[in-house]
Design a protein that fits this description.
By secondary structure, this protein is an all-alpha fold. The protein has 2 domains: about 50-325, no CATH class; about 390-425. Helices cover about 65% and strands about 0% of the residues. Strand 3 and strand 4 form a beta hairpin. It starts with a helix and ends with a helix.
Amino acid sequence: MQAATLLTSHADRELEKTELLPRGIDTSLGDTWVQPYDKRDVPEDDKDWSECLRGYKKQYLLIACLYAGPCYAIFMYSVVMSIWYGSWWNTSAGQPYIAKEEDLKMGKYIDVYRSLPAVLETHMWFAVLMLGLITFQIGFAIVGTFCDLKNAFKYHRALGIFTAMAIFVAAFLGTVSLFLCDVQPKRGSENLFFCAIGVGIMVFLVMGLYYAGKGLYGLHFQYMCISVCLVFSPGWNRITTVIIRHALQSIRGVTQGCFVMSTWSEHGYFYVWSFYAGMGSLALWWLLVPCTRAPFFKKYSVGWFYMLGMFGILLGCTWQTFIDWEQAPAWPLSSIQNCTKQEFTSWSNFTKGAKTAGLYSINMGYGVCAPSSASKQQGVPQIFVQHPVIEQPRTAPQNVGMRTDDLSLSEKYEKTAIAYWQGEM
């Protein structure tokens, strides 16, 4: 009887230690039902709260590894293919960003630009460096956490500043290039969602380093875990796009080249599905799966406000996709059909025009400045417009500055243009 009483008392003390951490922090499911949460009204940088989070370091490490694993694999595939082909590889499109001249002449690949922007190419080099350094950082963290080797965290700390620099530079350059000179159209709110990911990487990186410097390692684990997840989140764009591209090829016979063309067409291509996949995967490992579930950001903290903002932008992308656009339903396979010979000819003319006149004035019209009406896209070849509307000019078109090195040719083009816009062609 006495032994049973001692065992019961010991069990009660253990239960008290797990449910009531320092200064009464309650990590039971409580009101939130999906994750442990500190209900006390104390600042985020409270030392006891950080110590509570530190007890979940294995969970945060597992979250980062499980979330980033598929994305890491597809990133490494891009790196291997880039080395094999000799040019940066676009895994989503299934072709190099800049194809070799012989491949373009043979019609093996098609593109709409001559070279990558310098800021984007610099981002890619730093991204490769970043992948290598993150691999070592997570490796040291795994060894130090699960094998209890203290020297591993010593190396983790020594390498951390270089890894942080690579992450910050890659994220900053990538965010700028996405917003101003992306080479793959991302419509309206979707462009802003991509940019918000880049901002989040830098914010969480700085917060993680700040808390490590203050000795609040639990908060460091939490913020760096989500920073790493955001670093790898673009992998979900590639994963979902590859799945959709192959599904279109199997179901409708849409070729790889036709798929690339369709991303620039009237209906375009929607990345919102990859946003759902990325955020859903993070929520799954962070908040739902019992073996990896860990505390969410403290209410009204930097991380809490960021996640709230990202959810709002995701709602904006959803609204744009399903409601705001004047077009057919936006399901992944609804709009894209296999391309005709005439459409390939029109695409060839369009790419030559973009390469000659400049891509990025057009790109802004397809990116963050895309109009809400898909039938009124700037610069869309008429062959892609399902219901072309020819606007009749109020006055006869006038020559406002054409090339005069071949006057007869300029006059011929001018007459053709006037006849076209007056509906005589």
